[in-house]
Specification:
This protein is mainly β and 81 residues long. It has a five-stranded mixed β-barrel with strand order 1-2-3-5-4. The chain has a single domain, classed as OB fold (Dihydrolipoamide Acetyltransferase, E2P) (Beta Barrel), CATH 2.40.50.
Length: 81
């Protein structure tokens, strides 16, 4: 089974070797037929502490690293302005 890859924005880098990434998804509401935005926070493993708040990153599903970390950071997309 392929690993999921998501794109989001780093919202916190205060933890050691961990970043919190906010991933937004858009979908059409089934009844209202209106585009709705929902976001979710994921804790991702950042081995070298190289990602900072505001960076747009890709995260990949992985084996559990700790109690809450099930994702690892793949790469930085570009700096958010």
């Amino acid at each position: 089974m392929p690993k999921r890859i998501l794109q989001g924005v780093v919202v916190s880098d205060k933890n050691e070797k961990t970043v919190v990434v906010s991933v937004e998804r858009r979908f059409t509401h089934p009844l209202l037929q209106k585009t709705v935005r929902r976001s979710k926070h994921y804790q991702a493993h950042d081995e070298r502490n190289e990602y900072k708040v505001g960076d747009i990153v890709k995260i990949e599903e992985c084996a559990p690293v700790s109690k809450h970390k099930r994702w690892t950071v793949l790469a930085r997309e570009r700096a958010a302005t």
